[in-house]
Amino acid sequence: MQNMEVTKDLFGPAEADAEEREKISRPTRSGFQDGWIRLKQNKGSVVALAILLVLVALAFAGPAVARYDYYTTDYGAIFQAPGPAHWFGTDKFGRDEWSRVWYGTRISLLIAVVAAGLDLLVGVTYGSVSALLGGRVDAVMQRIVEVLIGIPNLIIVILLMMVMPAGIGTLIIAMSISGWVNMARLVRAEILKLKNQEFVLAARLLGTSNREIIMKHLIPNTVGVIVINTMFTIPSAIFTEAFLSFIGIGLQEPKASLGVLINSGFQVINSHAYLLFVPAVVIVLIMVCFSILGDGLRDAFDPQMRI
Amino acid sequence: MKKYILKRIVYLFVTLLVIMTATFFLMHSLPGTPFDEDKISSLSPAQQQQIYASYGLDQPVYIQYFKYLGNVFQGDFGTSTLYSGQPVKSILASRIVPSALVGIQAVLVGLAVGLVLGVVAAYKHNTPLDYLTMIVSVLGISVPNFVVAALLQYLFGLKWGLLPVAYWESYASSVLPSLALSFGVVAQIARFVRTEMLTVLQQDYILMAKAKGLSPAKILMRHALRNSMLPVLTILGAITVNVLTGSLAVESIYSVPGIGSLFVDTIKANDYSTILGLTVFYSAFYVVVILIIDVLYCVIDPRIRLAPAKE
To answer: Which of A55, A140, A159, A181 to probe the B interface (max B CBs under 10 A)?
Structure first.
């Protein structure tokens, strides 16, 4: 290295450009992108997500690929073992199990997603209204929740299923009526926590309107909790549907859902166990993947885990 | 503390009242009568009237409702229509033993296996043993218990013929239903204990114990396990729900003459008074268990004792 002569004119004040100083050198990432990046690092979640996507694709494309529909009976071909003609075999009426399984998966997923969506809508509204209004309204709303939380959900769902005509709509309504309480509590707790945090105070000091605070600060910050909870609501709705159909008060034949299929497979467990195994494997896959993905999302989006 | 418990008991009664009211009116808006349609329509109107009157079904609904409430508070749940004329109370009493046997066995087995798995997984953190435990717990939480029950029946009952299925005779009949129910419990507890243990093992007092030269076994049993056991109480509520609802399907699958299968049977038969009785029974059981767990938790852990009282 060469020695350099240090002269005075080499020194000068570093001009700090006010604008330059405030510039953010890296592209800003929203909370969502942040979470997504973290989620992608979690191998288990990525695999679970991939399997779920494949299952969803099969649920929609599966029946279209098959040469049979899910309800046409063929008494010349009952209880066929899985083979080239019927990939998953046929059931006691000669209906193609491949079509029935994927059609049933579609129905089960549909019920679960809509029920979870209704839960979300009612729960988020109830929770945020309760938290934002506060005072006496909050007190009354919370008393109601405290009573409802003590009611075993499944019993109410069963009772509702008995009163209303059996069908997909009834299932969805029955599950949503009892399901939203948990979401409402979570959202209320989260908003109450956020409401008293410094960044909200700062926003208020800067003159942000209430509306703006709710839309820009409170809601985006609760999204994580809501998404995570929904990821756990969907599999539990799938379970409830299957459970009700299995004990005989959910959907009924010839409609197909995973619960109906498991039920009819169980009845012939002695002789044609594949009719039980195929829908059982599908429901287990769905539940396991949702569970792993839910855990992954919680790790990725939970604000408390953020360093 | 006293105030807190009192408040909780008030809620408990309000909850039960809401449940009873909702169930009562839901049941009465059901289509059809609780009697066999063919048989009842073959009777003369006067005879029909007599049958309705003997069950108190001829009176206006609100009178039936208040009568019912009054009776329930005196411990009388009316008479079953499915099991003709038997009081619901005695049907319940005769059904409770098999359910309790299966349920308690399931919880005990679940607790024992879950604890061992959880502790081992935490102690051997990030080893194959740990991963195996995690796989078991994910499976246990996500595989529906009726699927587990059906598979166990297929393997043990049909394939290998080891254990009785679908009839209730000796103690052996209770093994499979208990196993099927315990699977979910094992998973819940293993997962919870593992997380709890991992936190506890990082505490300073564990380091202190190590520095004192205590053997790993002693540290594990004396210090780590005791401190991670306590929070398990908090998930006992969730486990109760799991076992209660699971019992509906599992008891039906294995023909256990318990409360779960009774519930399913009476639902299919529109047996109002039994369904009402069972709903009240289930809900009361659930609410009381939750209350006991919450109170116990405050009593056992002094760090929490003050929190609810402040409210």
So the answer is: A159
Question: Residue B99 is inside which H or E element, if any?
Answer: helix B88-123
Number of other residues whose CB lies within 10 A of the CB of residue B108: 13
Which ipTM value was assigned to this complex? 0.77
Min CA distance, A33 vs chain B (Å)? 27
> How many Å lie between the alpha carbon of B276 and the closest alpha carbon of chain A?
10
Contacts of A287 in chain B (CB under 8 A): 142-144
How far apart CA A256 and CA A95 sit, in angstroms, is: 11
Residue A170 main-chain phi, psi, to 5 deg:
-60, -45
Q: Give residue-wise pLDDT tens across range B6-58.
A: 888 888 888 888 888 887 787 777 665 656 666 666 777 777 777 777 766 66
Query: What pLDDT, on the 0 to 100 scale, is given for residue B171?
Result: 75
* Average pLDDT, rounded, for chain B: 80
Q: Which long-range contacts (CB under 8 A, 24 or more apart) does B293-300 make?
A: B293/B233, B293/B234, B293/B236, B293/B237, B294/B8, B295/B5, B295/B8, B296/B233, B297/B230, B297/B233, B297/B234, B298/B1, B298/B4, B300/B230, B300/B233
Omega of the bond prior to A254 within 30 degrees of 0, cis?
yes
Task: Provide the whole-model pTM.
Answer: 0.80
Q: pLDDT per position in chain A (307 positions), as tens?
A: 567 788 888 888 877 777 777 777 777 777 677 778 888 888 888 999 999 999 998 888 877 776 777 777 766 667 677 767 666 777 776 677 788 888 889 889 999 999 999 999 999 999 988 888 888 888 888 888 887 877 777 877 888 887 777 778 888 888 888 788 888 988 888 888 888 888 888 988 998 888 888 888 888 888 888 888 888 888 888 888 888 888 888 777 777 888 888 888 888 777 777 888 888 889 999 999 988 888 888 888 765 544 3
Closest Cβ opposite residue B282 in set A155, A246, A280 = A155
Question: From the CA of B109, how many Å to the nearest CA of chain A?
Answer: 23
**What CATH superfamily classification does B91-259 receive?**
MetI-like (1.10.3720.10)
Q: What distance in Å separates the CA atoms of residue A30 and residue A286, rounded to the nearest whole number? A: 29
Using a CB–CB cutoff of 8 Å, tell me whether B13 touches chain A.
Answer: no
Distance CA A210, CA B201 (A): 45
Q: Say if B10 is an interface residue toward chain A (CB within 8 Å).
A: no
Other Cβ atoms within 10 Å of A82 Cβ, number: 16
Q: Could you state, in order of their start, the residue ranges of all structural domains in chain B?
A: 91-259
For A250, name the nearest residue in chain B, comparing CA atoms only. Answer: B268
Q: Are A288 and B143 within 8 A, CB to CB?
A: yes
Give me the domains of chain A, ranges plus CATH numbers: 34-61+87-305 (1.10.3720.10)
Chain B CB contacts of A162 under 8 Å are 26-27, 30, 267, 270
User: Which pLDDT does position A302 carry in this prediction?
Assistant: 66
> Which residue(s) pair with A90 in the sheet?
A96
Closest CA to B102 of B211, B175, B2: B175
In this structure, what are the phi and psi dihedrals at residue A23, rounded to the nearest 5 degrees? Answer: -70, 140
